[in-house]
Each structure stands twice: as C-alpha cells, then as structure tokens.
Design a protein that fits this description.
Blueprint lengths: L2 H11 L7 H22 L1 E4 L3 E8 L2 E4 L6 E4 L2 E8 L1 H7 L18 H13 L1
Antiparallel strand pairs: 1-2, 2-5, 3-4
Helix pairs in contact: 1-2
Length: 124
C-alpha cells in the first residue's frame, strides 16, 4: 500500500462532510510522526487491536556489496520490528471479522486513540 492509497481510502471511509484530502493527509503525517517520536522515546508502540512496533538493535556484521559481491562491513544500527496482535492474525486468516476497537479508557501509549474517542464523544 502506498501513502496516497491510504489517504484516499481513509477519506472515502470518513463519514464527515468536512473532511478534506488536506486534513486526512495531515492526520496521516501526524500519526507517523507520533509513532516515530514514541519509538525514539520509549522504544515501543502498541495498538491493542493491531500490534506492537518495537525498536531492535542490530549488531555490526559482514555483508556483501550487491553489485560487485565484494565483502563489506555493516555498522551496528537500530531497526523496527512488528509483532501482530492476535485479532489481526485471526482477521488475516479469516477466523474473524476486523472489529472497530470498543470505547474503553485509553492507556498511556494510546494518545491517538484517546483523541479519536474524544472527537467521537463530542459528535454524539
């Protein structure tokens, strides 16, 4: 999935007459910025019905230059790993339908969900 497709799909699924491509684009940008920021601070971001992103350290290692095949040294670095939640695994395997998360008090790391739920409560 490309970013443009995500923005268009969110816009189509939005039941708000005031939603615009610019607004959805800004929300997608903000979402990614918050996730990156939290990964830098805490090393972990969890969405209970989707999965967990964790920062992982990679050791320095030997590699090969893809064009020449020449051995090279790769530096140590950080990467992100994803562990899918049970609900996502079941939805992918056809065992259950994907459910919208229920209204429950947002946990410490669920800032975006808390904002979404607050917005939903204002509309009701």
């Amino acid at each position: 999935m490309r970013r443009n497709y995500l923005v268009n799909t969110v816009l189509e699924n939005c039941n708000d007459d005031y939603a615009s491509r610019r607004l959805v684009n800004n929300i997608v940008d903000s979402t990614f910025k918050v996730i990156i920021s939290e990964l830098k601070k805490q090393g972990k971001v969890t969405f209970s019905s989707f999965g967990t992103f964790k920062v992982s350290n990679r050791k320095a290692r030997d590699g090969r230059h893809p064009k020449t095949g020449e051995p090279i040294k790769l530096k140590a670095g950080k990467t992100v790993r994803f562990q899918p939640a049970q609900g996502l695994k079941e939805a992918l395997n056809g065992k259950q339908q994907w459910k919208k998360s229920s209204k429950h008090p947002a946990g410490q790391g669920d800032k975006l969900e808390a904002l979404y739920l607050a917005k939903e409560d204002e509309q009701v």
